[in-house]
Structures are given as C-alpha cells and as structure tokens.
From TrEMBL:
Biological classification of the source: Eukaryota, Viridiplantae, Streptophyta, Embryophyta, Tracheophyta
Listed cofactors: Fe(2+); L-ascorbate
Pfam families found in the cross-reference section: 2OG-FeII_Oxy, DIOX_N
Transferase in keyword set: no
Organism: Populus alba x Populus x berolinensis
Reaction catalyzed: jasmonate + 2-oxoglutarate + O2 = (1R,2R)-12-hydroxyjasmonate + succinate + CO2
Record-given protein name: 2-oxoglutarate-dependent dioxygenase
Domain Fe2OG dioxygenase: from-to ranges: 206-322
Superkingdom, natural source: Eukaryota
Entry's Gene Ontology molecular function annotations: dioxygenase activity; jasmonic acid hydrolase; L-ascorbic acid binding; metal ion binding
Length: 373
C-alpha cells in the first residue's frame, strides 16, 4: 500500500458544498451523459429485489429450511442481491448504529477533520475513492474503518462522537460477523459443497471485515451526479443497512436500473467479486453474459447510488472479505479440464489495491484481469 500515500488533489468535503447553498454543482461532480441517473433507469413500484425471511433457517423444520435455501439460491442466481429480515441482529442496534453515524456527520468540521483519511488505507473520514488526478467525483462523504482481523482494528481511529459510538460499533460488528458466517454456510451448501468449504476458502476464522459509512448530502442537481458510481463490490459478502426513510441504492437488472425499496429493519445482501469470481472461474457462469448454466451460480452485480435535492441519506456497508493474503483462485471442486481458470491468481490485498487505484468503475475492474485465451 506504500504507493498510495497522499491524495492527488486537495480534498473538498461534499457536505460543505451542499451546506453552502450553491445552486450548481462543480464540474468535478458532473457525470458523463450516459452515466447520469436519468438515463435508462426505472423506479417501477412493482419491481424490487427479493425479501427473504430467515426465520427457521436453523430450526427443526427441514422443509422450511430447504425453502429458505432455495429462495437465497434463486436470488443469488437472478439478482446477486436480496434483503433479509428476521436475521438475528437487534433492530434497536441497527437504529442506534445508523443514528450514531448521522450525529458524527453533523459534528463540527474540525471534529471530523481530526479523522481525515489517506489513500494508504482509506481508514477514517474521506470524500473520494480512487487516486486518478482530475477524475469525476461522487457526491458523497464517507467513513471507513477496519473491524477484522484484530491486528488491523485500531479503535483510536473510531469516532468518539457521539459518546457511545465506539461501544455501538463494536457490538454491531460482532452481530454482523455472525450473520455473515451464517450466510456463507448457506452459499456453500447451495453450491453443493460442505457448509464450511466456502468459509475455509476465505481463511476460516481469519477473515477480513470492514465498514464504510456513506453520507450523501442534498444535491442541487441530482440529475447530473451520483452518490456512488456504478461498481461491483470487491470482497465476499456485503451487508448494507440502508437509510430507513430515503431510498437511493440502484441495482442493474436486464439493462435497467432498479431503485431498491428497503424493507423495515432489513439488511440488503449482495455477492461480491470474490464469490462471483470463484463461480465464474469454475465455468458455472458463462464467460460473456453471466448466463446461468447451473442452479448453483452466483454473480456480483453492478450497483450505484442516486442522490436527491431534498433529503440527505446515511447508509452502512459492512464488507465480509477473504483473509488479505489468501490467493484468489477457484475452488478445486469446481474446476475441470474443460473449465480452466479465467483469471490469474492474486491475493485479496493485491486485488483491493488494484481497485483503490481505479476507483468505482462498473465491472471493468474484474474484466480487465481476465487471462488472454
């Protein structure tokens, strides 16, 4: 990470731009016409990602458990996204975590600036992703921190405002790690593998976990900007705690952008590149169009965030990742002579550095790694 010491340009806090009352956003935030949210998007009221009730997942009702497994398999195959309710995480804790971060972002600037980040680790208070000089930027600020492994967990980088912020974050992380572990077993079973196989491929108990809190201020020209550009997540599983009042996440489905409608106290789950990559290398997902060739196929999906002129948004994205030095390669059980690897092996740290250099860029970061045939 020593190649990423400083940002290429002075950092501007998007929240400050919003609070200034400017009627026009700076050119640095204006997306090219084909990337703007008004192009090829839909907010159809009758379309949404699946909502799956996890009650009974580990109970004695085998038929109910099988039905839940099937629902998750279909959602992974057809969407790469789904929502989970009755997931075991305290609703009160979810609300406390979201509101704690809202309070932080409304703290005085000098308080937030004390936690300003650098591109070396991204940990702390930030306002841009990627280090390309002159890049078009997203209309958002964020806070990034490490939770696992414990060697990277530095509570001194965690905010002390509000007063219970660190306590809430610690408990929130513990409960989400447990939920991710349960979901990893489901994904592994649905692939026809032992329930621990996918977890072991990620490093067993020595996985990585981190949190990015997203703050999307009001935007005077929301038709020209994005809160977060189109991308797929580089890790394994992402659990998103959305804003409970303001929608903004859009998922790409059949060349359309679907605005997700969050269910009350649900987590939005999506599959990252590391799980999708293993499936793709196995040949279970077609090379060009991610066409489904088996009932056990998963895909990471492009998604983005839109902004609006009347309301701010806060969301918490929890990333459950492979151990940093684990080689990213297909599971041996899913490789055959007629299904050779499509991508060169690299560690998760190497892949993450590659992504950080580029910033959000659709699925192109995955495609550009493909081995020549």
């Amino acid at each position: 990470m020593n190649k990423l010491q400083e940002w290429p340009e002075p950092i501007v806090r998007v929240q400050s731009l919003s609070d200034s009352g400017t009627p026009l956003i700076p050119e640095r935030y204006v997306k090219p016409p084909l990337e703007r949210p008004s192009i090829n998007s839909t907010a159809s009221m009758d379309v949404n990602i699946p909502v799956i009730d996890l009650v009974g997942l580990y109970g004695d009702d085998h038929a109910l458990r099988a039905a839940i497994l099937d629902q998750i398999a279909i959602a992974c195959r057809e969407w790469g996204f789904f929502q989970v309710i009755n997931h075991g995480v305290s609703p009160q804790l979810m609300d406390r975590a979201r509101e704690a971060w809202r309070q932080f972002f409304h703290s005085p600037m000098e308080v937030k600036q004390a936690y300003a980040n650098t591109p070396k680790t991204y940990e702390g208070y930030g306002s841009r992703l990627g280090v390309e000089k002159g890049a078009i930027l997203d209309w958002s600020d964020y806070y990034f921190l490490h939770y696992l492994p414990s060697t990277l967990k530095d509570c001194n980088k965690w905010p002390t405002i509000p007063a219970d912020c660190r306590e809430v974050l610690d408990e929130y992380g513990k409960q989400l790690v447990k939920l991710c572990g349960r979901l990893m077993k489901v994904l592994s079973i649905n692939l026809g593998l032992g329930e621990e196989r996918l977890q072991n491929a990620f490093g067993g108990e020595n996985i990585g976990a981190c949190l990015r809190v997203n703050f999307y201020p009001k935007c005077p020209q929301p038709d020209l900007a994005l809160g977060l550009s189109s991308h797929s997540d580089p890790g394994g599983i992402t659990l998103l705690l959305p804003d409970n009042h303001v929608p903004g996440l859009q998922v790409r489905k059949d060349e359309n952008w679907i605005t997700v409608k969050p269910a009350p106290h649900a987590f939005i789950v999506n599959i990252g590149d590391q799980i999708q990559g293993r499936m793709r290398e196995s040949g279970l997902i077609s090379d060009e169009k991610l066409q489904v060739l088996s009932n056990a196929t998963y895909k990471s999906v492009e998604h983005r965030v839109i902004v609006n002129s009347s309301e701010e948004r806060v969301s918490l994205a929890f990333f459950y990742n492979p151990k940093s030095d684990v080689p990213i390669e297909p599971l041996k059980e899913l490789v055959a002579p007629d299904r050779p690897p499509l991508y060169p092996a690299m560690t998760f740290d190497e892949y993450r550095l590659f992504i950080r250099m580029r910033g959000p860029s659709g699925k192109s970061q995955v495609e550009s790694l493909k081995s020549p045939r």
